[in-house]
Amino acid sequence: MRILQAEIYGFGKFTDTKFDFEHKLQFITGANEAGKSTLKAFISAILFGFVDRRQRFKRYEPKNGARYGGKLIIEQEKQLYTLERLEGEKGGQLVITSLNTGQQLPASLLQRWLNSLTSDLFEAVYAVDQTSLEQIRQLAPEELEKSFLTIAASGSQQIMMLQKKLQKKAEQIYKPNGRLPQLNRLLQTYEKQTQELRAANRDSHLFVEWEKTLEKEKEQQEAVKNQIKILEKELLRQRQLDNLWPTFVELERLRTKEKNQQPIGLTPQEFTALQELQLKVKTKQDSSNSLTAKSQALMQQGQQTINLEELQKYDAAKDQFDNLFHQLDVHSTEIQLALELQQTVNQQLSSPQAASRENEVLRRTRKKVQKPLFKQNRRQLALLGWALIAGSCLLLSFFSSKITIKLLAVGGLLAALFAVWQSMSKKSGQSESRSQNSLSTGSAQERDLMVQSVEAKRLQQLLEQLAFFTQASAFCTASLQLPVELLKRLARLQQFKTRIKDALRERSKRDRFLDYYRQEHERVTAELNALTEQLKQQLQKNGASSFAHLQAQYLQQQQNTEKNAKLQGLQTQLPAEVQNELRRYQSREEFKAHLSKKQDELQHQKERLSQLTVSITEKEVRLEQFGKSVRILRLKQELANKQAQILAEVDSWLALNAANQCLEKVLEIMSQHTLPHVMQLAQHYFRRLTRDQYEKIVMVERHLQLVDKNKTQYDVRELSRATAEQLYLALRLAFIVQINRTIKLPVLIDDCFVNFDEQRRNELLALLEEISAETQIICFTVDISFLYDKVDKENILRVD
């Protein structure tokens, strides 16, 4: 686990504050009371829960009424999560959210990440502070070595400190040669009272005999009690074995199946790769099927939207149709005009008054033309006369030799020309006047007739221009069922051209899509074949005929793995001696019979104990009836009281010693498992811290020995305080790195540089940088002057 950011809603002096831990080695600095310890406590509170209200000074509740709590952004197994804890019951309300998926996860997941680590254990193992160094300085030389062994085995001094407390309490109860401990004083008093009782009982011989018999029966009673205890212990053991019998049967069954297991040797990573390959094959198959379906759908859609029959007709005579369509485009204006004129003429001819109106207009026009016809002929004769006179005068002026005649001829010529001009001007004016009168007096029906005549002529001209289309479209007359009339034929051809253009455009669009789908299908098919071949090779390599077969084999292998894990778990529950003990019985019935026999034997011993108890009681009553003095009874009572007190103190003393021995055994077991690895790492770290002054840390009969570069061995009790502190840090850090490979948590170091000189600070800093490559380290310190030229500014976070 790596902490990336701490966001405090309200905790101690902090409100709505964020701290980014961007680096694996992060220094937190600030003056005293700046909030370093508060930030450290906040990290522990989010991970392990808030302290209960009975320890309110350790809760760091905000004074300004802000919301109590905050959150951490962590990286766990290459995934990002937020751990948000707010005020609530049982350490606060915890919400875990995955930043990768946004999904809210169960709060119990944090306990799995922490391996059920408690806050106290986290403080003891993962937190290194100045207080622990001070404890090292205060230890006596004979305690120093045991402290180092405890640290190397468990990561902290708690076991040794607890052993010291237990030993001190045990010595307060009893010391072999002591006089002041409580049990020593009780034993002395008990011995004196026993001597007094014996002296008082010497007077009565019969009393002594009966007492001897009573003592003998009491001894038998104790023996029977011991036998009953042994039988009860054995019976308890048998009942425990009886409860373990189903587990033993399951263990034997799994052990038998384990012999028949034949693993395929496929790792989860390989199976995941094959799953991904199978998924790729399926995806490619789906893509191929999808492309085929799209192509078919496009073909079906094309059949519905495209007139294939007309396209076939077009394709059969493509060049001729293209030429015809070109001519239609070239003469589109004339064709459109002709169609409009035809429509106009048809509308006019379709009217019932059209014929009568035309005849009336022709009659009136005929009359108006005939009236001025005579006047026009007369005027033409006058002009002819004047023209003859002018010609004669002209001839005379050229051929006569007399000047007088020439002058007269010129005068006559000018007069004739003036008369002709005047006649022509008058004719033009009259003609224009008549024309205007004709137009002004003409009716609207006459004008309409004239317009119709013009439109009909224009239509006829256009039809003559477009007549070549009849011959040009002769090749498709039958296939398109073209009419004989030219304009209807042209209209039909234009409609066919429009439909063909749309159909060609749709077909081109469809063909582009089909070509794209075909290329994609070929590409996907090639990739599918390659992936299928790769999958086939992998399946053959693993001896499977199909992926389903391989998946079944892998699932069987996983089940076998789970069974093996279960088998190991059952073997842990059933030690070898328990298994061997249960194997002595052929069946559970035989075991039950043995158990029943033990129960009968126990019952017999209890009956015997009951008989002895009755006999002893009778004898004690008779002894009392002998009338012994009150002093003997008082002494016996006092002796009995002293025995009870002694037994109680002995139980306490034995419990303390048993606890101490248990801790010693735990330390020994932990040493066997973790000590070699921790010692190897600690040796490397200690060598770094001492600049190669000490090369090895060795164990000689459970005693730590240091070997320097001159191969000289030193006992740890010979070390200076500074070197002892270096050894302490090497062991603590080595244990943290070792256990952090299982329980990945950040290391919190609080002011461990205070009493170090510059050289030791530099060596420790270099070591922390090395360790931070695999374990996040957060250092809290007041003085950072020695860091300025050693680490980047980004590694230093200032708390104000």
Automatic annotation (TrEMBL):
UniProt keyword annotation of Coiled coil present: yes
Residues annotated as transmembrane: 381-399, 405-424
Record-linked InterPro entries: P-loop_NTPase, YhaN_AAA
Residue stretches making up the YhaN AAA domain: 1-201
Pfam families given in the database record: AAA_27
Keywords: Coiled coil, Membrane, Transmembrane, Transmembrane helix
Coiled-coil segments on the chain, per record: 180-241, 514-541, 588-615
Protein name: DNA repair ATPase
Origin organism lineage: Bacteria, Bacillati, Bacillota, Bacilli, Lactobacillales
